[in-house]
Structures are given as structure tokens and as C-alpha cells.
Design goal:
The complex is a heterodimer of chains A (about 110) and B (about 110). With about 110 residues, chain A is mostly beta strands. Helices cover about 0% and strands about 60% of the residues of chain A. Chain B has strands at about 5, 10-15, 20-25, 30-40, 40-50, 55, 65-70, 75-80, 85-95, 100-105, 105-110. The mean pLDDT of chain B is about 95. Classes of the chains: A mainly beta (about 110), B mainly beta (about 110).
Chain lengths: ~110, ~110
Amino acid sequence: SQQGEEDPQALSIQEGENATMNCSYKTSINNLQWYRQNSGRGLVHLILIRSNEREKHSGRLRVTLDTSKKSSSLLITASRAADTASYFCATALSSNTGKLIFGQGTTLQVKP
Amino acid sequence: DADVTQTPRNRITKTGKRIMLECSQTKGHDRMYWYRQDPGLGLRLIYYSFDVKDINKGEISDGYSVSRQAQAKFSLSLESAIPNQTALYFCATSDYMNTEAFFGQGTRLTVV
């Protein structure tokens, strides 16, 4: 089964609203990363949060990590139509096996 | 030029044929990955490699093989393609610190 599971699977909002996506994982991690994928294209890295960090910001993105609950959230503030994409969380395991394991993704639609 | 280049970008092949997907990277990273993406299932890890002498199976390696010809090159082979291997395949690379992964644009493979 997947290391990471994301919720919701799909999200539709109006431009200007905030979008929140959640990721849960099963085993201890070294870091957790969020990626964006435009339809059928390659994934692009958004932000990385290490296991000893609780919150990180990058522009309109805010990521939180709760290692006690094995969960993370990605908040996109003041969303734009151009934010329409799929968003994936990925975990780098603390055992440093080299694996980067992805969740199933959240598909975000931002309506103009 | 792209950091990670995959060839071909699209391929249609017949059941039973052998096919190779190629990947090269210019990041100078040691770690390389092959993922498969199916709708609703996110990205699943097929194989990963720490360096030219290190190859590891991922979650779904059956029916696939890989070759790490050089630090910059990592190819994926389907020895005898079957229709349920129809998917979008991604190659990625990251450094030994498990920081962000850089993805290729993907190869859309259809097995008929």
C-alpha cells in the first residue's frame, strides 16, 4: 500500500479562496515534500519540510507537519486559476533507503 | 535544456514486444528513480538506483528491469510488454540527501 495518502482526492474552489490538502503517512520520515503536476506533465517540486520542522512557508504556500500524527497539510492561499493542477505529497523515509514514496494526489480545480 | 530527459515521449507497442525507455540527467545526482503513474493511483516506484553499482526494486518491479549505464543514465525495460503496463512513466533524480527530486516530462506508453 502507499506510504502517503492524500485527502481530499479532488477539490474545487473559486479563485481567491484558500485550498487545503492533507497527507498522511505510515512510517518515520526524514522529510516530506510537496509536488505539483499539470495535466500529463512532469512533477515540479514545491516545498520540502524536514522531520524536525513544524511549519514552512514559500510565497502563497504554507506547509505544516505533525510527526506525532504522521500527517502534513498544504495550504495555498488566495488561489488562482493557474493553480489548477494535481498536488502530491512524497515522503523520504528516515531509514534512508533512498526511496521517495508518493501519495495518490489531490486534484485541485480553481474556477475563475 | 531539461535537467532530466526521457525518450521516447510517446510510444505505442504490441503485446509481447520488448521496449526500452531511456532517461538521462544533467544534475550530477547519484540517485535515480523510475515511477509509473496510473489514474487515481498516483506514482508508484518501480526501481531506484543509488549509483551505477546499486539497483533496488521498488513497489512494482515485476515485469520490468533496469540498467544504470552511467551516473547520468538509467533505462527501464519491459521484457515482454502487456496491456496493463499501459501508463505514464517518469524518471527522476535526487541527491544523496533526499532533497527535491527532478522529474522528466514522462513517457506515455500504450501496449496494444
